[in-house]
Design brief:
The chain is mainly α. It has helices at 9-33, 38-47, 50-54, 59-64, 68-89, 95-124, 127-132, 134-162, 166-191, 207-219, 224-233, 236-250, 262-291, 293-305, 309-317, 322-352, 361-381, 383-390, 392-401, 404-412.
Length: 422
C-alpha cells in the first residue's frame, strides 16, 4: 500500500524550509545581535543565495544518479552536520568567518536537498494531487518559518537574556537544529514511499550527453523568455524589502527602526507574521485549485504587493504599540503568502513542460528555483547599502515602486487560465 502523502509531505517540507530559514533569516538576526552592520549583513547573506541560484548546474546529477529518496536521507544528515558546525563556530572570536563557512556548507546541502525533495514530490504524486497538495506543502514550509523565525528567534533571545548573551543563545538554537535533522533523516528513511518512477532518468547516449539534454529541453521552450522574466521579477520589490525587515524592527528609533527586542521580533514577525503567511498560503492554494492560476493571477499579485505600503507607514509613523506593529506585519505577510502561491504553481507548470510530459521534471523544477533565487539574490545584495543611503521610509517607498515590473511580467507570461484547477 502506498503511504498517504500526509505521512511524509509535512515533515519533508519542514525539513526543506528550516535550513533556508536558518541561512536567510536566522543568520540576519544572529549577525545583527552580534553587532554586524546592515550593509554587511545584506551583502553576505545575499551571497548565501548563490547555491540556490546555481543548483541547476548539478540538478541533472540528482535526476541521473540514484534515487531521490536516498538523496533526501543523506542530505538531511549533511544538513545536521552543518548546523552542528554553526553551533560550534558561534562562540569563537572569528565567528563571522567560521559561521559563514558553515552557512555555505548548509546552503549547498539544503539547495541539493530541495532538488531531491521537489523532484520526489512530483514523482510520487499525480498532477491533480500535486496541485491539491501545494497548499499543504506551502503550509508546512511556512510552519518551518514559524518555528524558525518565531520559536527559535524567541529562544535565542530568551537564552541570551538569561543564560550568557547572544552567542550562547545562537549556540543553543543551532545545536537543537542539528539534532532535529538527525531525527528527520531517520524518519524519512522509513516514512517516504517508494514510487516506481523514482529511478535514474533515462539518458540520451552517454552520461554527459544526457546531462546537457536536460538543460536543452528546458531552454527549448517557445516561451522561455517570458518564463525567465516572470521568474526573475515577480518578487523584485519583496527581494529588497525582506532583507531589511528584521534590521528595521531591531534598529533604534533614532536610526529609523522600531527598537524591538529579539524576543519581540520572534513573536511579532516570526510567530504572528508567519501564522498569517501560512494562512495566506493555504487560501492561495485553495483559490487556485478552484479558479485556475491564469484566471486568478491579477488578484494574487495585488494581494502580495499592495500590503507593502504598510512598511512605508511603519517607518514614517514609528508606532510604539506592539499590537499595532504585529497587526501590520500580519496583514502584509498574509498577502505575501496568498500571492506567492502563484509562483509555486507557475514553477510546477513550467517543470511539467508545455504538454505536462517532461522527462526531467526534477531538474526543470530546480532550474526554475535557481532563477527564483537569482531574482532574490541580486536585488538583495544592494538592499542594505540602499537603505543606509535613503533611510527606512524612502527605502520602503522604493520597494513598492519595484513591484511594478512583476505586474508587467505576469501579463506577458500567458499562463493557462485553468492550470492547477481541480
Amino acid at each position: 500500500m502506498t503511504p498517504t502523502p500526509w505521512r511524509w509531505i509535512p515533515t519533508l517540507y519542514l525539513g526543506q524550509g528550516l535550513p533556508y530559514v536558518a541561512v536567510m533569516t536566522l543568520a540576519v538576526v544572529m549577525y545583527k545581535n552580534l553587532g554586524v552592520g546592515n550593509a554587511e549583513i545584506a551583502l553576505v547573506t545575499s551571497w548565501l543565495y548563490l547555491p540556490w541560484v546555481i543548483k541547476p548546474l548539478w540538478s541533472p546529477l540528482v535526476d541521473l544518479l540514484g534515487r531521490k529518496r536516498r538523496w533526501i536521507v543523506g542530505l538531511q544528515l549533511l544538513v545536521g552536520a552543518a548546523f552542528a558546525g554553526v553551533a560550534l563556530a558561534v562562540p569563537v572570536p572569528a565567528f563571522l568567518q567560521w559561521t559563514l563557512v558553515m552557512f555555505w556548507l548548509l546552503a549547498f546541502a539544503s539547495a541539493t536537498h530541495d532538488i531531491a525533495a521537489d523532484g520526489f514530490y512530483i514523482l510520487a504524486l499525480d498532477r491533480r494531487r500535486q496541485a491539491a497538495f501545494v497548499g499543504v506543502r506551502s503550509t508546512f514550509y511556512r510552519l518551518s518559518m514559524l518555528g524558525g523565525q518565531g520559536g527559535l528567534v524567541w529562544l535565542a533571545g530568551y537564552v541570551a537574556a538569561h543564560h550568557g548573551g547572544p552567542a550562547m543563545g545562537w549556540h543553543v538554537v543551532f545545536a537543537l537544529l542539528a539534532l532535529l535533522f538527525v531525527l528527520f533523516a531517520a524518519w524519512h528513511a522509513w516514512a517516504l514511499p517508494r514510487p516506481a518512477d523514482d529511478r535514474p532518468a533515462p539518458r540520451e547516449g552517454d552520461f554527459w550527453r544526457g546531462f546537457v539534454a536536460v538543460f536543452r529541453s528546458f531552454f527549448a521552450r517557445d516561451d522561455i523568455v517570458r518564463v525567465l522574466v516572470f521568474l526573475l521579477v515577480y518578487r523584485l520589490g519583496e527581494a529588497q524589502l525582506l532583507k531589511l525587515v528584521v534590521p528595521f524592527l531591531l534598529d533604534a528609533r533614532a536610526d529609523g527602526g522600531l527598537a524591538f527586542t529579539t524576543q519581540d521580533v520572534g513573536l511579532a514577525y516570526g510567530t504572528v507574521g508567519v501564522a498569517a503567511l501560512t494562512l495566506g498560503g493555504l487560501l492561495g492554494g485553495w483559490a487556485i485549485s478552484r479558479a485556475g492560476l491564469g484566471r486568478l493571477l491579477p488578484v494574487l499579485l495585488l494581494a502580495m504587493n499592495l500590503p507593502n505600503l504598510l512598511y512605508v507607514w511603519l517607518a514614517w509613523a514609528q508606532p510604539e504599540g506592539f499590537a499595532v506593529v504585529a497587526a501590520a506585519l500580519a496583514v502584509e505577510q498574509f498577502g505575501y503568502g496568498f500571492g506567492f502561491t502563484a509562483y509555486m504553481v507557475f514553477m510546477l507548470w513550467v517543470a511539467g513542460g508545455p504538454d505536462g510530459q517532461s522527462l526531467h521534471k526534477t531538474a526543470h523544477y530546480a532550474i526554475c528555483t535557481g532563477f527564483m533565487a537569482l531574482g532574490m539574490m541580486l536585488p538583495g545584495m544592494a538592499a542594505g547599502w540602499l537603505q543606509e543611503q535613503l533611510g527606512y521610509t524612502s527605502f520602503f517607498v522604493w520597494c513598492c515602486v519595484a513591484t511594478l515590473p512583476g505586474f508587467v511580467a505576469a501579463a506577458w507570461a500567458r499562463i493557462p487560465r485553468d492550470f492547477g484547477r481541480e
